[in-house]
User: What shape does this take?
Amino acid sequence: MTLLTIILLFLKNWWWFFLPIILVFPFKTIYLWWIRWEMWYKKQKWILLEIKPPKEILKPFRAMEDIINVLWGIYDGANWRERWCEGELIKGPYWMSFEMASIGGKIHFYMRILAVWRDMIEATIYSHYPEIEISVVDDYTRQVPQDVPNAEWDLYSEDYSTMKDDILPFKTYSAFFEERPEIIKEEKRLDPLDSLLEAMAKLKPAEQLWFQIVAAPITNGDIPWITKGKKIANQLAKRPAEKPARVVWREAADLLITGTITPPPKEEVGLIAPELRLTPGEREVLKGVENKISKQGFRTWIRIVYLYKRKEPHNRGNYKIIRSYFNHFMTENLNSLVFWGPTRTRIHYWLKERRLFLRKRKQFRNYIERLPSLFPRTEDGVPFWPFGLAPRGPGIRGTIILNSEELATLYHFPAKIEAVTPAITPIEAKKGGPPPGLPTE
Assistant: This one.
């Protein structure tokens, strides 16, 4: 009897034993998809808030950071039953979307949230910006045909990632703004958002530019980003690694065999502390990493969609408006935001027209639903392709970790609308409280 015959005979009699092992992974994948996206996610009720800022805001950028820190409180990590029986998502199950849209040159600020959070979020924003106006509006993404690209409309879309490991921060508002709220001068309050709004205001009537930052609060238990940051900080500071505790049974064995206990090796103490030997650039990187992990973290994906009517005047290069905006935050020794190759609507090889059409439809769908990059293949924004065949390009992955300071840098309200662009509809008059003694009944 040959070896092949023995193997075939074994499989013939024991195939049923291996079948559950083979099917467990696809069954788990199908079940989790059904319970999460077909059951739990579809039960959530989303609303879109439009935020109209006043003509002038005297609050520093730190006010927006404080709002985002408060909004981190929507975090509610799922336990075992909620994950497997109810379908609650993992790694930050609840998210919110900070959005800006230029509709034919008219600029709007939006937030997309769950309806149950409305009162809490409105109260948080009003407490920091009392003169702002917030209202529930129809979703602007539903005001265009839902089958784009089509014969009338076309689009360009891409997601954004970090050039280096996302534990390294990019340049934040502290580099642009000296916090003196009683003084508003150009040299004291340089806001990169002004250039973005100016460019968005120049879009033609047949053009639209959508920009979203979707943020899901996370803890170090969901994604160990703080642990990773501390490890990198220790390496940058050239701090000695923590030595493992001595094992008792090993000391006992040494005592029985040799009659003595081997003392631990002596540490070499330098005349200069490791931190003092850092160069100015290394010190800046170390400070940036330690500052990033000291604040609340969010699993984030960033996406734009540039829409235009094919037969009307447009400038296809306007999709680069957001890229230019992100250049303000670029530093060579820290980090920068760049487009992520696997998501941009450009195909170079093999069935180019068909693949380009499918990618445009997918990016359009992901924007409308505010879904993570490469959904549904992965929720982490990392391609499944093996053997290094995944599309490559700038950026590390589709979802990145940003802290509250970085989010406030990218999304906040302009200090002076009149100085930026007339394309934003501001609140014309300041809101005042009711007169004292006003009867309530």
